[in-house]
């Protein structure tokens, strides 16, 4: 079986002994190259990114124990369900849909193709912005461990994080090429998760009773709605078809294995650090938990550097659909080290990340970006579209009860999406009045 789609300018027909030919759209990146466990680690990298260090403050503080725990568990189950729906449609209609927009366009038409591409691009761009902010915060926290003069401001560290992301984007041509870097990503995740859990447990055992009561005033209501958007941000699957494109045959079966890995073993570190962090610091838990913990400087420094390095790798995953679009559009082929290809990545990917880093430094409100991302793109891409596309694709095979269930999901998450959008804009408006641009948060 071929594992790349560069052999034909339009489509490749993939044949197997017991299946009809499956067409694969043209792409400059590798297809059907990775094992399900590698894809599972890619998915786990997204869930256990350094964003997880913020969920105690961003999700648990507004929602409290009951709302936070129930919300995270329910969003895990619902995200797995919606992701499985998308995975089952990967070979729908006799062709592989290696991009989310391809699947939407095949089912609905050209308008849906363009709309989904816009939503997905906004989703991934905001996530990438968040990772650059996160990398800058980790570098600043590391700096403040050794120097407390505040001469270096957060925008400077965001610029350094953006530069590091540019170097990594130039060095790694496509998603499948991560390979050994996924091992490093897992190691970095374990470093900061284990350190945060250990130091939080120590602080929690030594601290006086904490306040765990969520806010109930007007501002607290907006924060609560924003936290609901952050719940789905934690399990963002807005690029699932692009990730599934990399998995080996049988594509659907292997992808479901990867999803099961992601939503069982893969979510344990994120849940653990979230609950333990909230238990230790209560309503004082910050949007970057390493700012709360106390302990040896060298240990906290190691955790911050691990968070910074992991953010670089994780950003590359969520930027890969944009890179694939640009590489395919401009016909980038051959060796990744060829002068033309190297120059293209320097100019195009570098330019994209420079813009991302600039906007990250301009408005570094990490929690608000998570809420906004969840509202405008994660809800539609993760919950609303998968249910509706499944109804359209399987309408002749679904019972009335099954169709009603999917329509209920569509209606419910559409309402939540609108409410979350209003809340996110409200929070950004408040923060924009509180802080100047290029704020040193």
TrEMBL record:
TM segment ranges: 36-59, 65-90, 154-173, 180-201, 221-238, 259-281, 301-326, 346-366, 372-393, 405-428
Protein localization: Membrane
Pfam families: Aa_trans (PF01490)
Domain of life (superkingdom): Eukaryota
Keyword annotations: Amino-acid transport, Membrane, Transmembrane, Transmembrane helix, Transport
Domain Amino acid transporter transmembrane: from-to ranges: 33-424
Cellular compartments per GO CC: membrane
A GO biological process held by the record: amino acid transport
UniProt entry tagged with the keyword Signal: no
InterPro entries (UniProt xref): AA_transpt_TM (IPR013057)
Transport listed as a keyword: yes
Residues forming coiled coils: none
Protein name: Amino acid transporter transmembrane domain-containing protein
Lineage, top ranks: Eukaryota, Viridiplantae, Streptophyta, Embryophyta, Tracheophyta
